[in-house]
TrEMBL record:
EC number: 5.4.2.2
Gene Ontology MF terms in the entry: magnesium ion binding; phosphoglucomutase activity
Catalytic activity: alpha-D-glucose 1,6-bisphosphate + L-seryl-[protein] = O-phospho-L-seryl-[protein] + alpha-D-glucose 6-phosphate; O-phospho-L-seryl-[protein] + alpha-D-glucose 1-phosphate = alpha-D-glucose 1,6-bisphosphate + L-seryl-[protein]; alpha-D-glucose 1-phosphate = alpha-D-glucose 6-phosphate
Subunit structure: Monomer.
Listed name of the protein: phosphoglucomutase (alpha-D-glucose-1,6-bisphosphate-dependent)
Similarity field: Belongs to the phosphohexose mutase family.
PANTHER family from the UniProt entry: PHOSPHOGLUCOMUTASE, CHLOROPLASTIC (PTHR22573:SF59), PHOSPHOHEXOMUTASE FAMILY MEMBER (PTHR22573)
Cofactor(s) essential for the protein: Mg(2+)
Bilayer-spanning residue ranges: none
Subcellular location field: Plastid, Chloroplast
Domain Alpha-D-phosphohexomutase alpha/beta/alpha per the UniProt entry, residue ranges: 71-210, 243-345, 355-461
Record keywords, A-Z: Carbohydrate metabolism, Chloroplast, Glucose metabolism, Isomerase, Magnesium, Metal-binding, Phosphoprotein, Plastid, Transit peptide
Amino acid sequence: MDSVFFSTLKLTPLPNASFSSRHFASLSVLSRKFPISRLSVKASSSAPSTSTANSQTIKIKSMPTKPIEGQKTGTSGLRKKVKVFMEENYLANWIQALFNSLPPEDYKDGVLVLGGDGRYFNREAAQIIIKIAAGNGVGKILVGKEGIMSTPAVSAVIRKQKANGGFIMSASHNPGGPEYDWGIKFNYSSGQPAPETITDKIYGNTLSISEIKMVDIPDIDLSCLGVTTYGNFNVEVVDPVSDYLELMENVFDFQLIKGLLSRSDFRFTFDAMHAVTGAYAKPIFVDKLGASPDSISNGVPLEDFGHGHPDPNLTYAKDLVNIMYGVNGPDFGAASDGDGDRNMILGRSFFVTPSDSVAIIAANAQEAIPYFQSGPKGLARSMPTSGALDCVAEKLNLPFFEVPTGWKFFGNLMDAGKLSICGEESFGTGSDHIREKDGIWAVLAWLSIIAYRNKDKKPGEKLASVADVVKEHWATYGRNFFSRYDYEECESEGANKMIEYLRDLVSKSKAGEKYGNYALQFADDFSYTDPVDGSVASKQGVRFVFTDGSRIIYRLSGTGSAGATVRIYIEQFEPDVSKHEMDAQAALKPLIDLALSLSKLKDFTGREKPTVIT
Ligand code: VG1
Ligand code: CO
């Protein structure tokens, strides 16, 4: 502690009401651990007589530190192997750099929310974040019990409690545990992921950081609800579900959904993948909506997700897929990812692509979901997401936006009142009820659509199924065949060279050129100018768009923690209903072959086969 100097912060008195019995309990723990004199927890002489014991001073340690390389955030927060985050000051540096990047009025005496997906290292990380927040003058932290709160719930709580922002301790769909990944995201005051203007500043500050400000208080007990107070700094441990559930009850018609879930001819199953939605599934689907308790599987959040990869897709949610495609499978199946913002929707022996899912939700929202009763304001998708949503926007005559990959690009459009429903092909769907994609919301949206379609069906009458809804949609709008090939953890050098090679092809390409049976309409590296604030995001994915609307897109992932993950997105529009039943892989075969040969993927990466096909 020699190199550590202390400064003492004078704090203002608190009203009596905030002195709960829990406060005294925590103070007594505190005084057992540290002699009061050392902690300088003392009554202020200027305190009003009604609250003599309430005004105290807490110590702020200024700890010297040095910059650490590589703390640049990707598509969604900073993600690294957990071992890296556990290195000295790694997390603390980033958190302090964040405070150094925000205007003080955005957090001083303000309220921040703290949540996480329950993964390994979250408990330690929560204590570090709380102490640094207090050291930088934050007034209050609202933290989910046991540090648990899903990404969409953090966004909901920030908005409801009018907080200044919030932290999410999660590497989302990346695996967890001592050998795997950890991550941190910061969301701003309207609940949206911090824009690049902020994350770029944070990165800049990680390169020049020299001091961490932290308060000298004991660890907060995150296992019981209640408020702990030190001076005018409060930590409130909150139920991670209640604000979120209240919002869902306002968005959806719970009676309508309950009617469906209570039918004996409708069977529902939800796989929480031992991730954060385990904490939400029972209170929402079982307790509120009447689903049977055994309809929830893997419903207990675990630090290593039960050795699973909490990514709800056809590869990693295999158990659910097997149930849904098995003999006498349920009518409706869904799964969510590590932090609860992704979703996968399945019918009996039927997979709904996320690109179709958002389009179908948008097409049915007005009639099936009370929140959208006056109709959606506008629709948006990420660039690689299929054009199914574009067709709905056109038919409903709605404003439409195409943004780069990553949810942070939707927030400005929502705040400006231009956007209601949006999605990404990567199993992310959501709306302007919050500023994150929302897994449980998507499941409730689909249940609402199925319930609405079947609301007048008598027992014994055949119900409209998930597959029926999707096929009807295709018949009305046409089908956008879509597939994504992921090549995970390639050597970075080869992957980067491949992208350079493709950029070079783009620069030499000309409209009208023949690529096999396809004629090029244009090729580019996607660039987006935010229509609200004018900010520009460039190099967001190499696109080859053909005259019949078919597309091939190449990107490198910005969420991995090792090597480079190459993503190839392939799409082809099919208006002919007689061809809609085709298997997507078969329908897309010529375009997939073209995508592989055009990019020389095998030569650059040495990969014969993708790791994941969606
Ligand atoms: C991926 C997806 C992207 C999504 C992001 C965060 O990013 O492609 O659509 O927004 O993950 O999702 P990338 O850069 O790896 O392609 V989550 O559930 O990790 O918050
Ligand atoms: Co996620």
